[in-house]
Amino acid sequence: MSSKRKRKAMAEEENESSGDRPDCVFCGQNLKNKYFMGKMMVRNGMSAHYYCILFSPGLQQNGGLDEDFKGFLAADMKKEVRRASKLSCTYCHRRGAVIGCCDTSCAVKFHLTCGLVHNSFHAFHDPLKSYPSYCEKHRPKQKTRRVNQKAVDRMCAICREEVTPPQPSPKTLWTPCCGHWMHRECVIKQAYHAGKHHLKCPNCNNRDEFVTEMKAFGVHVPSRDASWEKGSTFQDLYDHRYECSVEKCLSRKGKDFNGDKEWEILACDGCGANATHIKCSALEVDTEEWMCSLCKPILSNDKKLKTINQ
Question: Which InterPro entries match (predicted)?
Fold first, then answer.
């Protein structure tokens, strides 16, 4: 499958709609797109995309993070839904247009889904934490340095497909750290999975300047660890159960029993593969270092060689 077809298939999957999921009380749709809509949350008989909640200007986080919709109370949401029921969307003309352009001279109102289709801008990291939104006409535009266009790498450093046109637009982002262009969608997905602790420029590895610029131009950088660090994916690499490798292990609880004092298991300081209970090798209870029978002669020979060379 070509990379273009892969991206199309991913987009279709991410925008999957299901009759089994209830509709969002704000946008009226049940699209499944965690990158652009946030997760669909269901609480107290209500369901809403998390980003629809964030960018509803009449909502405030009046509860704790463990209450209702991450602190946005169901009672407050019902009031916001009633307010939005009187407002028509500029694009689809349906009622419920809860979001409005924050430019004071603009009267554009829209559902989050409609706004995204028409290149709306949403600031996740506004210093005032007011989560402002803008229509395409009034969205912030990146300022770029003048560079030799012939020398510019037009290949997105994430998907390795050409960025067209290589200029500020709702679909592109410019990296101030190395002057490269990337697809906005690619950066948004990368930020979602990397989180604030791992996100960096995929081209030059710059962290501070890159992240600051991406946040300023509408990329959500979650305050959590990377998605690949979650769960127990790599736990087996850290958990290693040693068992006594002495031929006649004295433990009645089994070779892998690791207890206190004489039944503590010590791993070989040489190979790390063999181990012994302190009692099975007749060691002192306070012994901290031990070498197996295979590693002892090797270490002894190394010491002899060092002595000869000196």
Answer: EPHD, PHD-type_Zinc_Finger, PHD_PHF7/G2E3-like, Znf_FYVE_PHD, Znf_PHD, Znf_RING, Znf_RING/FYVE/PHD
